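User: Some background: our group keeps a shared notebook of sequences we're curious about, and every so often someone picks one and asks for a predicted structure to add to the entry. Today it's my turn. The entry only has the sequence so far, pasted here. Could you supply the structure so I can complete it?
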Amino acid sequence: MTSPEDPGASDGQELPAPGPGAEWKRVHPVSPLVRGWIALAAIAYFVGRDQVEGLFLREESSGPLPPGTPLLWGVLALIAVLVVISVVFFLSWWFTRYQVTAEHVRVRSGVLFRQHRQARLDRVQAIDISQPLLARLFGLAELRFEVADAGESAVRLAFLRLDDARALRATILDRASGAEPSEAAPGEPGMPSEAPEQPVLALTPGRVIGATLLSGNTVFLLVAAAAIAVVTALTGEGISLAALIPVGLAVAGGYWSTLSGAWNFRAAISRDGVRIRYGLLDTRTQTVPPGRIQAVAVNQPLLWRLTGWYRISINVAGYGAAAGNDAARTRLLPVGTLDETLRILALVLPNPGTADPVGLFTAGIQGSGEDYGFTVSPRRARWVAPLQWRRSGYALTETALLSRSGRLWRSLAVVPHERIQSMALEQGPLARKLRIADLRLHSTPGPVSPRIRQLEDSVLLELFSEQSVRAADARRRDRTERWLHRETATGPAGPGAGLPTPAAPTAPAGPAAPAEAEQPGEAAHPAPQMEENWNEHR
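Assistant: Of course. Here's the predicted structure to add to the notebook entry:
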């Protein structure tokens, strides 16, 4: 299988011999059991059920076989099946190997159909360490690193010992960063230890439960229950109440997904990027390196207006559309106050490009009108957007483009200039008559779809032309792919440009505390502790 990130790797061709210190290694021997336990449980259930039913329901045998023979043959058949499965598991483990070089991660797998998968380290977008429930019992973890092809070639290593998975993650991030050997994190030769991290915030169980109950699932449940009650009252048929069963199951599934994706959520920052942890039964640790976040959105659902909570979603090239099945992977903050939201935004936008970032972003999240430099919809746009025409608009900083919309469901999208893939002006018949238009900003697949809505068409046409030049210039100066490379730290982009910077761990409200001094021997973060512009207005 040819890797999209390295056309030189293909099936049927032997990969280059490993260099010094880049030997091929195998995953943990228990890995096939952890991956295939569902199949074993299904076999045991069906075979065991038949045998138990046979013991209690089968009449006395009158055939040629002596009593108890069917049970004996059943046991022998089960043993044979288990032997076959054990051989398959062993071969699966034996033929699965991985290798980490200075430039690539390679994985070989397959018994009959061999597969060689290769990913370039400088294209690694995010690294996840996942621990399903059974893997946690064995102290194992799955390491998954995404490359920039919308999630189609994610490389997985399942399963490794948890300490080995963490060490391997540190190795991949260290080599992907372009750090010099002297700048690497301390550890054994060829296997650096994890970079020190600084906690930023942690969510309490009470807030997670409250956010779950006030989520869109509750709105859907209330609307569905009201609709069923009206239909029942009009028709007099109680059978419509049966519709509550699938509605209840769907809402329960939504509640569980929201709860498990935010439970025990913790965010931290290190020189490797933003690191988040979460999970109820299955736990996951995600690390998003600097510059890999393509777009950010701050949203406030309707019921969260009562509590002043917000959530932050992101687009990462490696997650792609596949993240739609696991929304928690794209949540940089499941639920947080305004202060916590600004604190997380400071991690992904350490250089906001404005003198008053707190005021600007607060206006983008909560405000309306032209305060803090926002350009908003003209008055005639009220015919197509009667509620949000005063809120729809955009603002520009030196480093990013902000787009806000929504009166009931507030939303603010932020796209760094260098992350804009392309743009498109859209104008329907009614909008053309009103001389308004929309500007869509194309990003990588994900939950964030930046769009500037219902603005003066001449204003958007001018923005379209200027932003094309601005985005191209920002891409030329971008140095975040190798964020610890010496050229990045001292190049034209400036010291530490584009790097996430640690915010001091504080309570949900109040000023940020000064960062602790690093201990001797620890790898220093190349960027300043926090942009002064964020702190001085907090």
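Suggested note for the entry: Residues 1-21, 182-189, 489-531 have pLDDT under 50 and may be disordered. The CA atoms of residues 311 and 334 lie 5 Å apart.
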